[in-house]
Amino acid sequence: MKQIDKTKPVMVTGATGYVASWLVKKLLEEGLTVHAAVRNPGKKEKIAHLDAIAKNSKGRIKYFKSDLLEKGSYAEAMEGCELVFHTASPFTTVVKNPQKDLIEPAVLGTENVLETANQTPSVKRIVLTSSCAAIYTDAVDCRMAAGGILTEEIWNTTASLEYQPYSYSKTLAEKKAWELAEKQSQWDLITINPSLVMGPPLNPGATTSESFNIMKQLGDGTMKMGAPKMGVGLVDVRDVADAHFFAGFIPEAKGRYITSAHNTNFLEMALVLQPKFGKNYPIPKKALPKWLLLLVGPMANKIFTKKYVRNNVNVEWKADNAKIKKDLGIDFRPLQVTMEETFQVLVDEEIAKAK
User: Fold this and answer.
1) pLDDT in tens, 42-63
2) CB 139, CB 315: distance < 8 Å
């Protein structure tokens, strides 16, 4: 059980990222000093949003150049920190070389940060951004779980280099983290395992992310014939940031935390947008039949292979979020709030096209 001193700096890797930006905002508003480890601090446009937040907050931000694959490149940023948030990790589902583009940065990056912590005597706790992808690959995996519900005890056993390499990379990275944590007693490890993250971004360029690709397809006419009832979990980016914050500072926090607010599917996500946006945007109103997706899915989208469609469409996704509510006191935002505020960003940036 570690008590973290809030007068000491706190390190955040990948500080300009989607989740990390909201976490940095929270830390700065609480008056903390943030050591932001980023790939290129010289790129002012990448850090402008964090500078703007720092200007209006009690806290301070300092930038450090670091790279997931460069050994020891986090040492300077970590110096004097009791708490480390490791959020940096590649997130993409379209990759040329899964081993090089996903597995290595995820696993070696985690190893790099945790090995540096072993050489930094001040570090007491590491909060790692993992994913529900380290627990499951497809919605059908829920059926294999006891009671049909995913819990923190479950590990992903169905992803591989050939099938869902992103999920595989998250599983290997988190396993590596626990393996390293067990070999030492200086710091404790907590992992935050979010499902699909939605919500308004603070960082520029976030609308090109995977989360926003799904949102775009719900609003740009791609799915106007219907949305697949593809079972997923969903959580608001601001709740994920809060989960990291509380995991860092609540001494009793321990282990893994499923960070998912809603057991949902693409059609339900579309339907909650209907009242506010349905009149002006081509948001789907009905389910796309599974047989049709099996037929055209693989042609329309590389991810929608026949296996993927079979394992996820019309399959309920269920996870148990009782542990995070109890231990960290997280009160998740309603699905409608998250969906509407995310879609509004696409409207404001003229990414969603009115019909």
Assistant:
1) 888 889 999 999 999 999 999 9
2) yes
